[in-house]
Design goal:
alpha+beta
Length: about 150
């Protein structure tokens, strides 16, 4: 989307995605996050979680990926850069949980050079509609006047 297409308070919902045990193990080993909460069922069963949990950054990555798949193209053609994000985890995600994202445009500011700063707030929920995380994205987008469209 280009700057002019972002409307404050616009809301979008993604499809769901089930996070598998394989996703969790691959992410943990790929990133070097060898936390026994992610990889060791015996260890994790003795914690407050009672079983292994999904790495929080994997959940955040999947939330972001689901937003990329929205047909409106929030991170599409006009997207220039992600310049900041803030993440708050609110509930553990377990292998086998299905998450989806709800994203809202919460701010828009015109910048120089036919660009703008757009702030998006996303909430990811599990299959029980329990919120599992919140992410605020600050992105730079092109304005249509740039001649990009």
């Amino acid at each position: 989307m280009f700057l002019e297409e972002f409307k404050e308070a616009a809301h979008y919902a993604t499809n769901g995605r089930t996070i598998t045990e394989a996703d969790s193990v691959l992410f943990s080993t790929l990133t070097g996050a060898y936390n026994p909460l992610f990889l060791d069922e015996v260890y994790a069963s003795k914690t407050a979680f009672k079983s292994r949990i999904v790495p929080g950054l994997l959940t955040a990555s999947i939330c972001t990926g689901l937003i990329y798949q929205l047909p409106v193209g929030l991170f599409g053609e006009g997207f220039v850069a992600l310049v900041g994000s803030t993440i708050k985890w609110t509930k553990a995600v377990l292998p086998g949980d299905t998450v989806k994202s709800h994203v809202t445009v919460v701010g828009k500011k015109t910048l120089a050079d036919n660009r703008g700063l757009v702030t998006l707030k996303a909430k990811a929920v599990n299959q029980n509609n329990d919120e599992v995380l919140e992410i605020e994205y600050r992105i730079i987008v092109q304005a249509v006047q740039n001649g990009s469209s």
